[in-house]
Structure formats: structure tokens, C-alpha cells
Amino acid sequence: MHIKKFLKPKNFILCSFLFITACIEDAPLDSLSPAGPYARTIDELFWLTFWIAVVIFFIVQGALLFSVFYFKDSPDKPEPKQIHGNNFLEILWTIIPVIILASIAVPTVRTIFDLAREPEDALKIEVIGHQWWFEYKYPDYGITTANVLVIPEDTPIRLEMWSNDVLHNYWVPKLNGKRYLVPGQKTYLNLHADNAEEFWAQCGEYCGLSHSKMRGRVLSMSESDFDAWVINEQKNADNTLSEGSLAYEGQQVYLNAGCTQCHVIGGVWDVQGERIAPNLTHFGNRNVFAGAALKNNSENLTKWLANPAELKPGTFMPNLELTEREIEALIEYLGTLK
Ligand code: CUA
Prior knowledge:
single chain; alpha+beta; Immunoglobulin-like; five-stranded mixed sheet; 9 helices; 12 strands; binds dinuclear copper ion
């Protein structure tokens, strides 16, 4: 773009807005507010590099401004002394960058190894990427869930990850850096949250139409809350609905409208279809759905069940042409899956 065309008040205002967005307080994907040791390690490296860059910036710009003004040409000034080919200076300004780069490279390499090391006594959780949602499995507990990753606070977590289709990328900015989810290959990422808190996750690699809606939540909770969560997740869904109730009607919709082709509900329908969709056994306990892009409430569920692709373009969840009554019953049923 021609620079003069760009330097218009309109563009300046637009750029200012972009700049101001950096000041937003409530930023759940802010990678500069670490909430665990791994994210803190990265943060420390960032600030070290940042301040080195700041010092270099002022030295270089200062030298530039000094040269511009001090050596400004005027008729009565003689030509300044030329330093081209000065051996001492050539060696000096080769050694200085070497020292700077080394002082960044050593802590960088150390950080890379620190982050990759498998922590002792870590809780192992599998993360599987799907277009466009994250599936979580706890092999030690026999739990399968989706969208919301539940972890105990102040405990090292070892994620073993892969993709079921295309490249995805797992990123919880407040807990660690990004790591690819690759089809047919395992990758690993450590998480560790200081406190009980809710964190946001985001797929960090363009993976198709609804990549931007491939989000996630990480819920860290106290040891006792986590234990209670595990015990509940290991149970099947409550299957004692009274016949004639709206929830019972909703269960019939689930069983007959085509949902069972992809969605499992433990104890109600345990056969996994060819396409894997989120396990719904404890859907009612999750605060988000549809790749964590939507809050779990009846308003969003109504829109979603009426036409999923309108909210999440490209989604593999088909429009099942449900009637209003069927949708209402299904939402009632989903609410009982605690
Ligand atoms: Cu998955 Cu982007």
C-alpha cells in the first residue's frame, strides 16, 4: 500500500482502536497473565526478551537521532571522520550481537526443555481434536467428556494429544503455550493451574470453517471437588425418568431422531457411531457446548437444535428437522444429564 494513502485520519483512528484493545481488563485468552508454573516460565522468558529489545531499541534509535542532528550537513562544516573498515569497531559490533543473542538463546533453550519434561506424578489426560471441538479422556478413571477439561488445582497434568481429522492446536494461554494435535501422531503438553479457576482454551491452527468456534474451557477445582466430579462422571446417566414426563419424551427423541448415530449417553445408548460427537452422559454439568462456542442455556440449545449450521458453519451436526415440541423435550432431557 502506498504510505500516503495509508496515512489518513480514518486509518489512524482504526489503528488506535486496535492498540486500545490491548488494554482490555477481562481478557480470558491473555497470555501475559500466567496462572500456573508453565505459563510463568514462558512469561519470564518473554519479559527478559522484551526488556533486552527495549534497551536495544533506545540505544539504536538514540544513536540514529544523535547522528542525524550532530552530523547534519551545513556549508561551513568539514566532512566528518569516516569509520569504514575500522577493525576495532567491526569486531565490537559483531561481538555485541553475539552476546545479546546468546543471552536470549540460553534461557530460551532451557525453557523449551523445561516445558517438554514430563512432570512426576502427573495426571494423564488424552486430548483428541475433532472438527470443531476437543474431546477429553481420562484413561485412569475411564471417563470421556468434551469441551470442558476438568483438572485438580495445583497438580501437574500431562496431556497426550492427537487429532481425529486435520491439524488442530491446543492452547490455554494462561496455563501454557500452544501444541499441535496431529492426525496419527501423539504430542504432549503439560498444564498446571495454581488455583481453582476457569480458563479459556482456543484451537490455534486454522482447521476449517468453524476453526474460530473451536474453543474450550479448563476448569481447575479443589482436590475434593475433583474427586467428587470423577465419581459422578464415572456413573451412567440417570435412566429412571417417569414415563409421560417431558424429559422422558426428550429421551425418546434422542433415541429415535438420529442423535444416537454420533452421540453416546452412558447407560442409555453406548454404541459409538462412525462419526464421534461429544459424549453427552453428563451434558447438563457442562457450562458450554458446541465446541465451547455457546453457553449451555435453553435459548442457545433451541437455536442450535433447530439449525446447528447457522451457529457453527460446516458443523457435522445435521439439521434433524425437529419440531418445536421435540426441541423443548430434548432440552428438558439434556438438562437431566448431570
Ligand atoms: Cu481446530 Cu482450528
